[in-house]
Amino acid sequence: MTFNNIVFESVPQIVHPPGMDYHFDKSITHHWRWQEMIAQLRDEDMRDVVVGDSSDDANRSRGLIGCMIEKSGVYDHKRHFAARTRNEQLDEKKYIWNFVLERDDGSLVSLHPNFKGPKVECRLGGWCSDDGELPGSGKGGTSGKGTYRHFKLKYTDVTLRFDARKTGKGTPQSRSRPASSSTA
């Protein structure tokens, strides 16, 4: 799903009871703009997401032009672990979903915010393909100490943080298409 650059999206409310379970209540919706999610990052993290490596000013991005939510094709250990905890059948492989941002230079950044806490797992250059690795005891299981953390951070280049002092007001403007090259 590609999000609109100009108008609010109507998104269902997430219901997250104690534990790892969650579901969406489509009878309750909220107005949401993807730009607000970016605006609530710490300033230095927002700058990295929007413009990338600014050490080379001539080749850096000039801003974000779009956002979509995308199934990555990468094994989602957190969701399998939660399902295993609930004694559910683990027949179907669950995959990680990410917010994929496109910069005006064509580069991609994938964000995976956590429900609890300010951390946002980030993959620069978009998400990669799954290598097929599973825990030794199967989906949602373990290979020993550190298995959960290993799979949680396996495809993360950097961990960003939301700034709790920001409210999402005054969101950054995005362009609906890349800026044209200057002839001056």
- Total number of domains: 1
Q: Helical percent range? A: 10-25%
Number of strands: 7
Mean pLDDT: 84
What topology, given as strand order, has the largest sheet? Answer: 3-4-5-6-7
Sequence of secondary-structure elements:
EEHHEHEEEHE
Gyration radius, in Å: 18 Å
Strand content: 25-35%
The largest β sheet comes out as:
5 strands, antiparallel
Structure description:
With 184 residues, the protein is α+β, with helices and mostly antiparallel strands. The chain has one domain (9-52, 61-161). It is built from 4 helices and 7 strands; from the N terminus they run ββααβαβββαβ. The protein has helices spanning 34-39, 43-51, 77-85, 147-153, and strands at residues 9-15, 23-32, 64-75, 95-103, 108-113, 119-124, 158-161. A 5-stranded antiparallel β-sheet has the order 3-4-5-6-7. Strand 1 and strand 2 (23-32) form a beta hairpin. The N and C termini lie far apart (37 Å).
